[in-house]
Amino acid sequence: MKDMFHELDLLSRQLNQAHRSAVQWELNAAGLREVGHPMLLTILESGEEDAPCHAQRDLAELLHISPAAVANSLKSLEKSGYIRREPGQRDARRNRVLLTEKGTRAVAGCRASFQRVSDRMMADFSPEECQQLMKFMEKMLQNLLSSADSQIKE
After folding, report:
1. Looking at residue 98, what is its pLDDT?
2. Rounded to 5 degrees, what are φ and ψ at 83?
3. Is 90 helix (H, G, I), strand (E, B) or coil?
4. C-alpha to C-alpha distance for 40 and 84, rounded to whole angstroms
5. What is the largest CA-CA distance in the chain?
6. How many angstroms separate the CA atoms of 94 and 30, rounded?
7. Quick one: 119 and 135 in the same domain?
8. Alpha-carbon distances of 130 from 5, 134, 135, 136, rounded to whole Å
9. CA angle, residues 83, 87, 89, in degrees to nearest 5
């Protein structure tokens, strides 16, 4: 059983790395090489205009990365012209992060890149197999998150 868990861990790492590489290749091919964190950019699309702005802490939790990593990514996206920041309407201490026109175009390119990678990754899977895989992955994620929560509380 120990060997099987080792193999699963190795396979999980290989899959994660292969997925990241495939997404980066697709982004490069689409002329989006400088988008450092494409998922962050796509999440920001939902923070437009009347929607509530996302706090760095909220973004970090959604992406399972540190607030510092979010801050660095936002700085890079702003420098590259994908986003702009402005004071919040209700609380000037809390910046709203808004996509620029360039950012909006990039989101469409990121989504298309994600879709091409997903289509390639899930080729030859039946809809039932996809559903089963999703349930297994959700269960693994919940196991990891619940164990992380209990470690924090200790």
Report:
1. 85
2. -135, 165
3. coil
4. 14
5. 56
6. 33
7. no
8. 22, 6, 9, 10
9. 115
pTM above 0.90, yes or no: no
DSSP conformation class of 54: P
Q: Do 143 and 98 share a structural domain? A: no
**Residue 84 contacts residue 75 (beta carbons within 8 Å):** no
Same domain, 101 and 145: no
Reading the block at residue 134, the tokens are 């999703």
Number of domains in the chain: 2
Of 47, 53, 26, 49, nearest to 38 by C-alpha is: 26
39 and 75 co-located in one domain: yes
The CATH number linked to 18 is 1.10.10.10
Strand partners, 1: none
> Rounded to an integer, what distance in angstroms lies between the CA atom of residue 110 and that of residue 37?
10
Q: Do 80 and 114 fall into the same domain?
A: yes
Tens digit of pLDDT at every position of the chain (154 positions): 788 889 999 999 999 999 999 999 999 999 999 898 898 988 888 755 555 456 777 888 888 889 899 999 999 999 999 998 887 677 666 677 888 999 999 999 999 999 999 999 999 999 999 999 999 999 998 998 887 666 655 5
- Residues with Cβ within 8 Å of residue 139, at least 6 apart in sequence: none
